[in-house]
Amino acid sequence: MHNSCGLDLKCVPKELKLQLEIMKRETAAELQEIDKAWFANIDWDKFLELTIHHRVYSFIYPKMKELDENLVPVHVIQTLHQYFKMNTFQMLHLSAEMEHMSKLFAENEICLLVLKGPVLADDLYGDISLRTSSDLDVLISLHNLDRAEELLLNLGYVKDDYIVSVLNDWKWRHHHITYIHPQKNIKIEIHWRLNPGPGKEPHFEELWNRKRISSLTSTPVYILGREDLFLFLVSHGARHGWSRLRWLVDINQIVKQQLDWEKTIKLLKKNYYFHVGGQALFLTSQLLKTPLIEEVEPLLSGNRPKTLAQEAVFYLERMVNLHTDPVPDDVAMYHSRHLFSLMSYQQKFLYTMSCLYPYPIDAETLPLPKQLHMLYFPLRPILCIWRRVRKHELS
Fold this sequence. Notes:
Elements: H1 14-23, H2 28-32, H3 44-53, H4 57-64, H5 74-107, E1 113-114, H6 118-125, E2 136-139, H7 145-154, E3 158-160, H8 170-173, E4 176-181, E5 186-191, H9 204-209, E6 212-213, E7 222-223, H10 226-239, H11 245-255, H12 261-270, H13 274-287, H14 297-300, H15 304-316, H16 329-342, H17 345-354, H18 360-365, H19 376-394
Helix pairs in contact: 4-5, 10-11, 10-12, 10-13, 11-13, 12-13, 13-15
InterPro entries: NT_sf, NTP_transf_5
Pfam families: NTP_transf_5 (PF14907)
Protein name: Nucleotidyltransferase family protein
């Protein structure tokens, strides 16, 4: 059972390795062929905890049912079944709201692309119950943001106004605003970018021109073109360190579909995600045995895809949750370094230049009237030094 795939997985929990072994099998016959030694000395509570953390319980449950009942405790199957049912109801709930939202935005002449949620589950897995989703992520053009917010507020949604901005940096530093419906218990993220800036990515008009229509609903719901979806999935997963296996399973699923790899590679190169695409394919091919065709070889050439993939193993060795503050200091430092290593030279230049642009914390350090906010540009180095000195004194 030693891993010979080229990735060092010796510190990855054996419970997670078992999940990978199960998820890479596609048929009942293949599941029956799993070496029973994989199931020895498994901490099943930890196994369940990991399936919940990685959001793969809906994908793994149908496979777990096919295993020899003597290998897995009954309570494990029962718990997974409960989560599977709850997710199915959640996805049906989100599907209804998504269809309603798409119709409403179309009536108000707002072009809307649904990024994730039930349409992604249907598109990649062919079944909305096989992928989890806690909210709806949609993409619109930035100039429609005010109108979209007005529609949501009229529907009873409440804005989660967490963004603090100075000199309108929110338009490029952030990429979405969250709205929550307290009665429906639904969260919607309105995106105007695929990822936070600074960085290059396709303009909304390009994405809209390459859109597809989802087959899930009777009312037209528009989704990203397949090559654009691949770019979005690899950039999103990499930005979060692939800290949830669900994102790698998404890559595994989309690679099995009919992608135009020539277009995909050009798209990745144009937006400086070529190396990130290589990282994603290396991870899935090694961890989930994703079949790769000859056309993807350029993405896997050289040492960088494997190096970046090995860096991502850090997030599989522990249950890293980057969405819950406070993130442990050691994890935050590692993640910061890893994100920088993922960047191309062009992205590193943009990021370095963006650090010279004032941050909201500068306004907190030295409050100035709005008409004097331009002074934060020359003052920023001084304010940074001041904060470091104060932090050192307090510590």
